[in-house]
């Protein structure tokens, strides 16, 4: 499949439902950015890694699970309220947080070996969140199923991920340098970057929803 097709669909969904995505996800992303900024000031950037992961585990499962549930509901032409999605995401938080921790650990382990193993693991685990939220799988089952379901779609997922992440990361780095020591501006820019990274979940969901891929290659 041409990567431009799921990217186009993801952008269309993102812009069409922007008025829902902002109240659904941005408050949690802003709180996550604010907490990470406080951690940075408390422990310093050199020791921030592990604490930043903890901050992510608090909020990332909430807004990502809510986003996945919203996309699934819109696929069935349903319009759940933001409060309903938050409530459902909160019930999923323990399992989702464990899955996020395991995923982060595996990716970091892969990156510590070489860059390519880390990228491979990141792509192969890109469906794990959908398996947990929509299929009711345990974290370990979700990891296994993601490895299976991404077979035949590795390069499609990788291409779409790079198209989204590289510009966002580059813009975030440039804006962070421009913001300097302005804490409020840095938090706002980090939250804005995190909000646009929702496109990564949206495009992965679009590929996931296409159904089984040919069982060849990675």
UniProtKB/TrEMBL annotation:
Residue span, DUF7847 domain: 99-166
- Could you list the residue ranges that cross the membrane? 12-30, 50-71, 92-109, 115-134, 154-175, 187-208
The question of whether Transmembrane is a record keyword is answered with yes
Its recorded name reads DUF7847 domain-containing protein
Question: Which superkingdom?
Answer: Bacteria
Which keywords annotate this record?
Answer: Membrane, Transmembrane, Transmembrane helix
Pfam families (UniProt xref): DUF7847
